[in-house]
Amino acid sequence: MLKKYARMKIKLAFFSIIMNQIMTTATQQLLDLLSLTPVKAQRFMGQSVRFFGKRVFGGQILAQAIMAAAQSCDRPVNSLHAYFIRPGDSDFPIEYEVTCLRDGQKFSLRQIHAYQHGQLIFTALISMSIEYAEFDYQATVPPYPAQPPQLRHQYATAFHLHIEPQAAQQTTDAVKDEYVEYAKTYQPLALEYDHQIYHQAILAYYSDYSLLNIALRQLDLDESDSNLMSASLDHSLYFHRDFRVDEWLCYQLHCPSAQHGRGLNQGTIWQNNQLVCSAIQESLIRLHK
Questions:
Q1: 79 within 8 A of 127, measured Cβ to Cβ
Q2: What phi, psi does 54 have (nearest 5°)?
Q3: Which tens digit of pLDDT belongs to each residue from 193-223?
Q4: Alpha carbon 252 to chain centroid distance?
Q5: Who contacts 151 (Cβ-Cβ below 8 Å, separation ≥6)?
Q6: How does strand 262-271 pair with strand 249-259?
Q7: What is the pTM of this model?
Q8: pLDDT in tens, 237-279
C-alpha cells in the first residue's frame, strides 16, 4: 500500500512538472507573438498563429498593432479604434506600417496599417498619453467576485491565457443577459516584459476572445453552425487605469442591440474593484439560407 502511494505521488509530481512547463511555454509563446521584427523605417513584421482556422485571430492583430505603435512612443495607450478590412491568413506573417500623426505635450497619435499579400487588411488609430491624476470616477462595481471562486480549467489549452467562465448562478434582472469570465496569463510576466505596454497588448489580445460571441448568445445562435458567418467589423478599447494581466481580470460582457446583420458587443474589464478597460465591437452576423 505504501509503495502504491509512493508511486502515485511520483506520478502526480511528474504530471505537475510537465503541466508547469506547458503553462510557462504558453505564456512565453504569447510574449514571443508580441515581438515584432523591424523591416525598415516604421515598418515591422509580426508572426501569425492558427487558433480558429485559417482566419487570423483579431486579438493577435490588435496586440501587435499596439506593439508596433510602441516602437516610436514610450507612452501607454489610452484608446484604440480599429477596423478589420479583410480576413487575415494565419499561415503568413503580417506587416505593420506606423505613421506618426501627432506628438503633443500630453498625447501622441499613431496610425497603424497592417498588410498581408500586398493588401491592406487592418487599420487602427492608437492614442497614447501621459498619465496624471486630476479626478477619478467609475461606475458601480458589478456583483461578481474579484476572481473565480473555483478553477475548472486549470491546465493550458490551445489559447495562451487561462480563462475561467463565471459559474452559473441566480441573477437579477440587471445582470441576467450578461456573460462573465475571468482571465490571466498562466505565469507572471518576467521583469523584462513587466511594462504597461505589454500588459495593454495582452489585454487587447484577450479582449477579442469572447466579445464576438455575445450577440450570438443573445440571438441563440450556435457559433459552430455551418450556416452561420460571423466576423469582427471593428474594435475599440479604452484603457482607464493600470492593471496586471498576470492577475485575475473580470470581463463583464453584454449585447445591447443586434439588427441588420450586425451585433453590438460591449465589455467592461475589472480588477481589484477598479474598472481598467472598456471594449466595444460591432460584428457581422449572417445566416446562409
A1: yes
A2: -75, -20
A3: 999 999 999 999 999 999 988 998 888 887 7
A4: 13
A5: 164
A6: antiparallel
A7: 0.88
A8: 999 999 999 999 999 999 999 989 899 999 999 999 999 999 9
